Amino acid sequence: LSDEIIAAKEVMAQLRLPRFVRQGDIATLSAELSNLSDKILKGNLTMQVYDPMTDRVIWEKKMKMRLETATDTVVHFTYLPDGKISLPACRVWFEAGCYTDGEQRYLPVLENKEWLTQSLSFTVEGNGEQTYNLKNLFQHDHPNAINRRLIVEYTANPLWYAVQALPVLQ
Q: How many CA atoms lie within 13 A of 143 on its CB side?
């Protein structure tokens, strides 16, 4: 025996989101609406970005839609993530009379900051006292620099740094 099954609703709303967005980006959030019915559908489309922990809506856009019979329509919205919530979720739904469908997914927001590593190498030779100026480290006390750390590593044999890097190279 052989048979075919098509699993589809007459109206479907599917999110087309980027894998992630960065804080400060101008992101495009998209949804694909499919009308598999034999009717022209007029309804309302809603897209939201919300905090999944509290269900508080962060951003919302609504629009009236007209879907022709047996067609797919893609809609785009512009979203500016503020980064206050690192893992918001996005949901979309379409309602047209007795037809409705929706979908929701997480939309990770990455920080717009980057880790910056500054290094200063120096060689200690012989006995005596040597002075090194570390003023250039820490971005000259830049007001936006956070999580500052100073790590001093010393080795009698610099080849040891190559040995430490071997697991990373695997």
A: 0
18, 68 in Cβ contact below 8 A? no
Q: Which of 104, 94, 102 is nearest to 41 (CA)?
A: 94
Question: Which pTM was predicted?
Answer: 0.66
Paired with 140 in beta bridges are none
Strands (E) located in the chain: 11-16, 21-22, 27-35, 41-51, 56-67, 71-79, 89-96, 99-106, 109-110
Structure tokens at 156: 């009698």
Indicate the burial class of 99 (C-beta count within 10 angstroms; 0-12, 13-18, 19 or more): middle
Residue 92 and residue 45 in contact, taking contact as beta carbons nearer than 8 Å: yes
Per the CB < 8 A criterion, the answer to whether 63 and 73 are in contact is no
Per-residue pLDDT tens over the stretch 13-34: 999 999 999 888 899 999 999 9
Q: Are 100 and 12 in contact (CB under 8 A)?
A: no
For residue 44, list its beta bridge partners: 64, 95
If one counts every other C-beta atom within 10 angstroms of the C-beta of residue 67, the result is 23
